[in-house]
C-alpha cells in the first residue's frame, strides 16, 4: 500500500512569519550600513548555511531569486559605468568612466543587493499570506481591520492575471481586439482597473456588513505562537550581521555610508 501520511513539516514552515520578517529586516539594516564586498560576501555565505539548516528547496530558491539576480546585475552595471571614478581609468566615453573604484563599487553593490534580498526569498518561500496576517494581528497586535483588509487585498491580487485573460477573450469575441497592440493593451488595462475597483468596493461592503473590525474583542481562528524557534531565527540573523561587520572591520574593508 502507498504511504499517504502527510510529510513532516520542515523547520522553516513551523516558524512564525513575524520572526521571518524581523530576521530579514535585521539583516537588511545591518548590511545597508556599509558598501563593501567583504561584509556582503560573508553574509551570503552565512545565509547559504542558514538555507541549508532550514532545508529550503534549491529549485524554489533559484527560481525566486532569478529576478533578484537580474536586478543585482543591472544595478552593478550602472554603478560600473557611472560610479565613483577612482584609481586607474580603464575606459572612458562621454559620461561613462570605468575605473578601479567603479569596478570595486559595482562588485560590492552586486553582492550587497543579493545579501539583502536573499533572506526575504529563502524565509518566505512557502509562507502563506494568511499565516503572515495571523502573526501581524496576534504577535504585533496590529489592528484587525487593517490586517484583514490587507489580507483580502493580497488574496485578490492573484485574480488579476485571470481577469486579464478573460478580458482578452471577451474583447476578441466582440471584435474589439482587432486594433493596434498598444491601443488594445491600454483599453484592456483600463477595463482591468475598473473591474478591480468594483471588486474591491464589493469586498469592502461585504466585510463591513459582517462586522470586520467593528469590535476589538474579535478572536482569531488559528493561533500564531511565538517561541524558541522564532527567537533562535532572530538571534541567527543578528549573528550573521555581527560576523559580517566584524569580518569587514577586521580586514579593513568597512566603508560606512555616512562617511562617504
UniProtKB/TrEMBL annotation:
Keywords: Cell membrane, Membrane, Transmembrane, Transmembrane helix
Membrane topology category: Multi-pass membrane protein
A cellular component term, taken from the record's GO annotations: plasma membrane
Regions crossing the membrane: 21-54, 60-82, 103-125, 231-254
Record Pfam families: CbiQ
InterPro entries reported in the protein's UniProt record: ABC/ECF_trnsptr_transmembrane, ECF_transporter_component
Signal peptide span: none
Subcellular location: Membrane
Major localisation: membrane
PANTHER family with a match to the protein in the record: SLL0384 PROTEIN
Protein name: ABC transporter
Amino acid at each position: 500500500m502507498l504511504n499517504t501520511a502527510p510529510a513532516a513539516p520542515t523547520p522553516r514552515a513551523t516558524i512564525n512569519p513575524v520572526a521571518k520578517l524581523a530576521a530579514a529586516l535585521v539583516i537588511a539594516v545591518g548590511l545597508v550600513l556599509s558598501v563593501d564586498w567583504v561584509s556582503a560576501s560573508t553574509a551570503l555565505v552565512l545565509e547559504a548555511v542558514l538555507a541549508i539548516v532550514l532545508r529550503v528547496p534549491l529549485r524554489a530558491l533559484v527560481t525566486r531569486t532569478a529576478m533578484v539576480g537580474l536586478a543585482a546585475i543591472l544595478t552593478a552595471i550602472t554603478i560600473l559605468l557611472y560610479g565613483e571614478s577612482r584609481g586607474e581609468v580603464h575606459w572612458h566615453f562621454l559620461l561613462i568612466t570605468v575605473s578601479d573604484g567603479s569596478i570595486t563599487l559595482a562588485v560590492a553593490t552586486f553582492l550587497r543587493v543579493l545579501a539583502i534580498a536573499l533572506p526575504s526569498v529563502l524565509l518566505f518561500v512557502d509562507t502563506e499570506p494568511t499565516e503572515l496576517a495571523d502573526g501581524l494581528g496576534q504577535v504585533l497586535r496590529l489592528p484587525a481591520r487593517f490586517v484583514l483588509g490587507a489580507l483580502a487585498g493580497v488574496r485578490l491580487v492573484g485574480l488579476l492575471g485571470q481577469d486579464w485573460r478573460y478580458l482578452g477573450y471577451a474583447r476578441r469575441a466582440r471584435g474589439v481586439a482587432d486594433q493596434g497592440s498598444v491601443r488594445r493593451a491600454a483599453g484592456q488595462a483600463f477595463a482591468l482597473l475598473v473591474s478591480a475597483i468594483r471588486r474591491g468596493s464589493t469586498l469592502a461592503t461585504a466585510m463591513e456588513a459582517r462586522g470586520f473590525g467593528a469590535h476589538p474583542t474579535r478572536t482569531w481562528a488559528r493561533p500564531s505562537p511565538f517561541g524558541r524557534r522564532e527567537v533562535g531565527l532572530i538571534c541567527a540573523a543578528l549573528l550573521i550581521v555581527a560576523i559580517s561587520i566584524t569580518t569587514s572591520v577586521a580586514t579593513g574593508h568597512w566603508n560606512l555610508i555616512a562617511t562617504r
